[in-house]
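Researcher: Re-running this chain for the archive, since the previous output was lost when a drive failed. Same request as before.
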Amino acid sequence: MSLHGLLDVVVTDPAIAEAVKAAADGHRMHVDLVGPPGARPFAVAALARQTGRTVLAVTATGREA
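Model: Regenerated structure tokens:
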């Protein structure tokens, strides 16, 4: 499933925008995010698209991976 259509809207959320900014500025080696399961794919997609850095997403179960 492609998230491209919704991703432009999701990245305007203040919490997602703050996480992307923190990851993109290069001052942090990692960024920890906690959120509802439905938001996780969008957060990872936003980080991957907008930071230009490798994203390693660690999830609680294989089902979420």
